């Protein structure tokens, strides 16, 4: 086992999980979480992220490996003794209790004196701005209000760690943004550590200190949001996080950081990802907002000729659909201002971009 | 912005009302077949039964003139000659119509032992001339049997002759109306005891099905779909086999030389075979088995709807699993539990076939007595009164349940 650093609060050490004794759902998960961090486990459904959360909460056993909080293994600790707060997608508010009774539940279980329970409940209702709603039943609240009650209930017994399992999945878009803000505020204010599971990348990017991208039981990359977006470690992350175009090609030459790639439309220069070898097939990823259509005064290293297909008016920006000579679709996002050009159907156009904005990944 | 008027104009209101009427008619048409069926198959029989329990015109139809003559009778001595003569002539007519047997049965219910008296009197008066009866009817009657001199006999006739009477209800609660009109306990106490026993057995059966069914339903609700469906087949299996077969299987198990006794004797636990069959025990155990699905199904349906995140949330907040179950899961599964308990209890209160087959005399329930009065003693009126009382009892229990638990706390799925 590695030395536990002084600032490491929660550590996953080669954690594996199998349900059927044949296949691993989680294939060796390693992670060190510092106190107060907001960690998001992001991945498509069935990628193992919820399983990791359930193992941490104690509702699933760990097949092998170790989970430790503050240096102590919790593998054998009963879930009710772990002191971990949890927020569920369906909120799991007890329908036969009022909001105040829901909040009081963890305190009553801990046998706190009545007066203290009452004060704490009032304090936390105030914290989530629901002071007026203590006597209501969860069924009488809106989705956002229920979510706030669920948050307050997970925080009220002052756990050191709060787990959130797709907590905003059931809310509509506006409310979801509002709640993201709310969760971020509470996290900053109270300073607890959060492990957050979602399949929504916007949510992950806007809230997290670090994001662990899961696929097929393996963490593909664990990094802060900006790094994840700007420097994806592999083609899966590049494709999963945000929108991306992929241009197929062959590596002509590569040095330490960059590679020259031959495509059907010409030669382009890109950053070289790990595992890229000269002469092999590759895919060059480039974000739609990093592509420019001339006339433009942006700098550029690469230029490709494309054929205009269609454009979609989205509002704040316009999406252009082009085709490369080999038929690959290329999407370009242009801000909806005076520079957004018009094209005739099938017209030829140039796309320009910087070498530092595109990455060549090994194909396959 | 333009503002549109909020009120409907008369034409709009007419259209809206027509729409509502049409929808109501449609809804009504959907249930018409069932409604007709229920009226013929349920409402009508129940009403007939309730009516029968207080209405018995047999005697009044057989001897209307005698009963009319008895109106003036003081009730303390033998009725005067005109009544006796009238009755003698009625008896002769009935003897020739072969309806005297009916009268014998009816009076015998009011006063045991009268059946043979009526029948022998009818025989002796059958061949007597009408003129002879008109002249000497009274003495002929008294000669045929001296019980016709006893006022009690005539009280019995008079009370049997009432078209509407509460006597069957009084009998069902072990009471009777004395000659002076007061209400007193009957000598034989059968029915109240039987009602209490029936309720007690139903309660035991309900508790047993909860004890057996709740953990099973809980497990099934947590299990994977495949396993839950597999187990569900076993729960439903009793429904797919004939009730008679299931009950007879219990006979095979429990009888003196049955599986249970011979096994226990073979392993040396007992020397003498236990009296298992034809007892209260056998009725309870067989009915628990038969009614278990009625408990498991609503429980399972409700529990299946309770997401496991509720229990997990409670446990993550520090509750022990048992505490979380008691404080969170049990209240949430209560609607299923209420529905199952009510279903099992009400079905077992009115259960007939299993007690009849495996109950012996010890394990009889109220339904068996009702059946006895309908099939053997031919006392439909008493059977109807007992049945109506059972219905009232169940409604009373339901009302009590509604007060305690709340009827909207019942959920079948």
UniProtKB/TrEMBL annotation, chain A:
Keyword entries, A-Z: ATP-binding, Cell membrane, Membrane, Nucleotide-binding, Translocase, Transport
Catalytic reaction annotation: ATP + H2O + polyamine-[polyamine-binding protein]Side 1 = ADP + phosphate + polyamineSide 2 + [polyamine-binding protein]Side 1
PANTHER family to which the protein is assigned, alphabetical: SPERMIDINE/PUTRESCINE IMPORT ATP-BINDING PROTEIN POTA, SPERMIDINE_PUTRESCINE IMPORT ATP-BINDING PROTEIN POTA
Keyword Cell membrane part of the UniProt annotation: yes
Subunit note: The complex is composed of two ATP-binding proteins (PotA), two transmembrane proteins (PotB and PotC) and a solute-binding protein (PotD).
Enzyme class: translocase
Function: Part of the ABC transporter complex PotABCD involved in spermidine/putrescine import. Responsible for energy coupling to the transport system.
Organism name: Jannaschia helgolandensis
One Gene Ontology term, aspect cellular component: ATP-binding cassette (ABC) transporter complex
ABC transporter domain sequence ranges: 10-241
GO MF entries: ABC-type polyamine transporter activity; ATP binding; ATP hydrolysis activity
Family assignment from sequence similarity: Belongs to the ABC transporter superfamily. Spermidine/putrescine importer (TC 3.A.1.11.1) family.
Protein name: Spermidine/putrescine import ATP-binding protein PotA
Gene3D superfamilies: 2.40.50.100, P-loop containing nucleotide triphosphate hydrolases
PROSITE patterns documented for this protein: ABC_TRANSPORTER_1, ABC_TRANSPORTER_2
Underlying gene: potA
EC number: 7.6.2.11
From TrEMBL, chain B:
Residue ranges of the TM segments: 27-51, 201-221, 227-245, 282-303, 324-353, 382-401
CDD domains with a match to the protein in the record: TM_PBP2
Domain ABC transmembrane type-1 residue range list: 195-401
SUPFAM superfamilies: MetI-like
Subcellular location, principal: membrane
Subcellular location: Cell membrane
Keywords linked to the UniProt accession: Cell membrane, Membrane, Transmembrane, Transmembrane helix, Transport
InterPro entries: MetI-like, MetI-like_sf
Source organism superkingdom: Bacteria
Membrane topology: Multi-pass membrane protein
Statement: the UniProt record of this protein carries the keyword Iron: no
GO CC annotation, single: plasma membrane
Any single Pfam family the record assigns to this protein: BPD_transp_1
GO terms under biological process: transmembrane transport
Family: Belongs to the binding-protein-dependent transport system permease family. CysTW subfamily.
Protein name: Putative spermidine/putrescine transport system permease protein
């Amino acid at each position: 086992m590695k030395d536990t650093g002084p600032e490491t609060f929660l550590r996953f050490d080669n954690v594996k999980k199998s349900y059927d004794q044949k296949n691993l759902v989680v294939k060796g998960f390693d992670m060190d979480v510092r106190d107060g961090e907001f960690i998001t486990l992001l991945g498509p459904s069935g990628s193992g992220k919820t399983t990791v959360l359930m193992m941490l909460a104690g509702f699933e056993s760990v097949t092998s490996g170790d989970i430790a909080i503050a240096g102590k293994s919790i593998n054998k600790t009963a879930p009710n003794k772990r002191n971990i707060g949890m927020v569920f997608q369906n909120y799991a508010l007890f329908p036969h209790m009022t909001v105040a009774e829901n909040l009081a539940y963890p305190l009553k279980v801990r046998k706190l004196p009545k007066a203290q329970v009452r004060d704490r409940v009032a304090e936390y209702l105030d914290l989530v701005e629901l002071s007026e709603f203590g006597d209501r039943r969860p069924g009488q609240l809106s989705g956002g209000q229920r979510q706030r009650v669920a948050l307050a209930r997970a925080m009220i017994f002052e756990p050191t760690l709060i787990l959130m399992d797709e907590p905003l999945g059931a809310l509509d878009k506006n409310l979801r943004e509002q709640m993201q803000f709310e969760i971020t505020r509470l996290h900053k204010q109270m300073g607890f550590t959060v492990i957050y599971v979602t399949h929504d990348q916007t949510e992950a990017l806007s809230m997290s200190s670090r994001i662990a991208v899961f696929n097929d039981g393996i963490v593909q990359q664990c990094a802060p949001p900006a790094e994840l977006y700007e420097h994806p470690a592999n083609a899966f992350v590049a494709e999963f996080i945000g929108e991306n175009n992929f241009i197929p090609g062959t590596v002509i030459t590569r040095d330490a950081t960059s590679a020259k790639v031959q495509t059907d439309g010409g030669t382009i220069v890109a950053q070289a990802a790990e595992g890229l070898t000269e002469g092999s097939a590759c895919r060059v990823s480039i974000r739609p907002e990093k592509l420019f259509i001339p006339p433009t005064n942006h700098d550029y290293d690469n230029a490709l000729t494309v054929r205009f297909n269609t454009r979609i008016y989205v509002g704040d920006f316009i999406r252009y659909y082009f085709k490369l000579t080999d038929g690959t679709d290329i999407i370009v996002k242009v801000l909806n201002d005076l520079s957004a050009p018009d094209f005739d159907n099938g017209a030829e156009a140039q796309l320009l971009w910087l070498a530092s904005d595109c990455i060549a990944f090994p194909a396959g | 912005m333009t503002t549109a008027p909020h009120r409907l104009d008369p034409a709009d209101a007419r259209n809206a009302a027509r729409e509502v009427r049409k929808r109501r008619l449609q809804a009504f048409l959907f249930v018409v077949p069932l409604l007709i069926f229920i009226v013929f198959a349920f409402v009508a029989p129940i009403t007939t039964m309730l009516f029968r329990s207080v209405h018995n015109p047999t005697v009044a139809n057989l001897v209307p003139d005698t009963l009319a003559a008895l109106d003036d009778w003081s009730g303390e001595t033998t009725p005067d000659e005109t009544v006796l003569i009238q009755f003698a002539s009625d008896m002769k007519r009935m003897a020739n119509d072969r309806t005297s047997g009916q009268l014998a049965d009816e009076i015998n219910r009011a006063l045991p032992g009268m059946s043979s008296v009526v029948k022998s009197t009818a025989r002796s008066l059958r061949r007597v001339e009408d003129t002879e009866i008109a002249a000497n009817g009274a003495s002929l009657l008294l000669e045929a049997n001296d019980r016709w001199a006893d006022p009690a006999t005539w009280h019995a006739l008079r009370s049997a002759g009432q078209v509407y009477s509460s006597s069957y209800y009084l009998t069902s609660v072990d009471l009777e109306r004395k000659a002076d009109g007061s209400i007193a306990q009957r000598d034989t106490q059968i029915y109240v005891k039987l009602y209490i026993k029936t309720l007690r057995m139903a309660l035991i059966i309900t508790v047993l099905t909860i004890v057996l069914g709740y953990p099973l339903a809980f497990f099934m609700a947590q299990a994977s779909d495949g396993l839950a469906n597999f187990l569900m087949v076993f729960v439903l299996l009793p429904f797919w086999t004939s009730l008679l077969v299931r009950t007879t299987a219990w006979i095979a198990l429990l009888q003196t030389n049955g599986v249970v006794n011979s096994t226990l004797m073979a392993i040396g636990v007992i020397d003498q075979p236990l009296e298992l069959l034809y007892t209260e025990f056998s009725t309870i155990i067989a009915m628990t088995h038969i009614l278990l699905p009625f408990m498991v199904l609503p429980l399972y349906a409700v529990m299946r709807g309770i997401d496991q995140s509720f229990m997990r949330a409670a446990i993550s907040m520090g509750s022990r699993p048992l505490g979380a179950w008691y404080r969170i899961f049990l209240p949430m599964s209560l609607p299923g539990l209420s529905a199952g308990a009510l279903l099992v209890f009400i079905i077992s209160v009115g259960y007939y076939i299993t007690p009849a087959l495996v109950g012996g005399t010890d394990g009889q329930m109220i339904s068996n007595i009702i059946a006895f009065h309908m099939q053997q003693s031919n006392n439909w009126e008493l059977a109807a009164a007992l049945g109506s009382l059972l219905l009232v009892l169940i409604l009373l229990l339901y009302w009590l349940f509604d007060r305690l638990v709340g009827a909207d706390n019942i959920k079948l799925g």
